[in-house]
Design brief:
heterodimer, A: mainly alpha, elongated, B: alpha+beta, 11 helices, GvpA-like_CS (chain A)
Chain lengths: ~110, ~280
């Protein structure tokens, strides 16, 4: 490995390492990231970053990582993407509208006022 | 969207590796390689922040293709190592915030906007990571514990912080004063000693026996963020545990110095959890 990086000198002075030698340690670090939340971003970045998010969820579903013992997502409540929440919120709003409409209609027929 | 410099008319995506404020040395960047299937590493600018990226063929890095490839262990490894090379190339002259593996954008402009939009978090992280490295430390029990080896791992689910884990560990110790309990206590002692030389610590899930290839269960899998000025103290403390083995019930292993991945999550509030940061 070329030593481009004077700040991470590897093994000359350290008895530990090489830092990237262990695949498990590396995967733990490059995959162990939460979901990107672009909460306050108005521009349309989200669908692009969803690529990464969905990808992580796909990785989560495969045997590979499980075999590697990397199974942090299985019980990680953070693994609900914003997109899924948005979809839920949208559906919720639509259902409320329908409910209101239905209740309105019901109210008209029964005279009940809510 | 700017046109990409990938092969002739090959649709390309932009693969992002890391953000830094110190642009890497051009010669070093030219010598480094990211994904073998992609183009040269290059730097995008978003104000005074730099994003190290690479054009990669959409045919291989589109969602479906990538998902399929990452299902294959050898490709997963190649991808992870390529990502790490890209992150290392970005870290030549100063602190970096590594991005998650396979962070892909449809073009330069979008990637720049993504960085610009996260400016405050990135600033905070870059300041926090300056002149600091990460050390990975694993503590194993010296002998197979009498209970199911997976126990220590599965009970410490994510979302349960170090405190929750420790309190469960203490409860178990009270239940049964066995070898496993003693080993856990020793692991905690190791953690406490190392923490005193670190700026922060964060726990990864203990790795399974399948992964470590060992029968003795992994009790602790901790990442420490260490100030360069205190590195000698930290490694000396570490050497006491790895070489001198003053605690008979545990075996301690370490790797480092790492670029501080575990402390560089750009997608969340960089202020550490209350039980994470230790006063230096």
């Amino acid at each position: 490995m070329t030593d481009l990086d004077h700040r991470y000198p590897g093994q000359e002075t350290e008895p530990y390492g090489p830092p990237s030698g262990s695949l498990a340690d590396l995967l733990e670090r490059v995959l162990d990231k939460g979901i990107v939340i672009a909460g306050d971003i108005k521009i349309d970045l989200l669908d692009i970053e969803l690529l990464t998010i969905r990808l992580r969820l796909f990785i989560a579903s495969v045997d590979t990582a499980k075999k590697a013992g990397i199974d942090w997502w299985e019980t990680d409540p953070a693994l609900s993407s914003r997109a899924a929440r948005d979809a839920l919120a949208e559906e919720n709003a639509r259902l409320r509208e329908r409910l209101d409409a239905l209740e309105g209609a019901a109210g008209e027929t029964t005279g009940a006022v809510r | 969207m700017s046109a990409s410099a990938a092969g002739p008319a090959a649709p390309a995506l932009v693969c992002a590796f890391a953000v830094t404020r110190t642009p890497p040395d051009p010669a070093g960047l030219a010598a480094a390689r990211g994904h073998e299937e992609g183009g040269a590493l290059r730097v995008l600018r978003a104000g005074d922040l730099c994003l190290v990226v690479q054009d990669v063929p959409a045919a291989l890095f589109g969602e479906e293709a990538l998902t399929e490839r990452l299902n294959r262990p050898e490709d997963l490894e190649r991808c992870a190592r390529a990502h790490h090379r890209g992150v290392e190339a970005a870290a030549g002259r100063g602190p970096v915030v590594p991005l998650p593996m396979a962070t892909l954008y449809r073009g330069d402009r979008t990637a720049e906007l993504a960085v610009a939009a996260r400016r405050p978090v990135l600033d905070t992280l870059l300041a926090r990571l300056r002149d600091r490295t990460e050390w990975a430390v694993k503590v194993h029990a010296s002998e197979a514990a009498p209970e199911a080896p997976a126990d220590a791992g599965t009970r410490a689910g994510p979302g349960s912080g170090g405190r929750a884990y420790l309190s469960r560990a203490s409860a178990r110790r009270r239940e049964r004063q066995g070898a496993h309990g003693r080993a856990l206590a020793e692991a905690e002692a190791v953690d406490a000693a190392l923490r005193s030389h670190a700026v922060a610590a964060t726990r990864h899930r203990p790795q399974s026996e399948r992964l470590t290839g060992r029968r003795d269960p992994q009790l602790l899998n901790v990442a420490y963020l260490v100030e360069d000025a205190r590195r000698a103290d930290f490694t000396a403390a570490l050497a006491r545990f790895t070489a001198d083995r003053p605690l008979p019930g545990v075996r301690v292993e370490a790797s480092g110095p790492w670029i501080p991945y575990s402390f560089a999550r750009w997608d969340e509030d960089p202020r550490p959890a209350p039980d994470q940061e230790t006063p230096s």
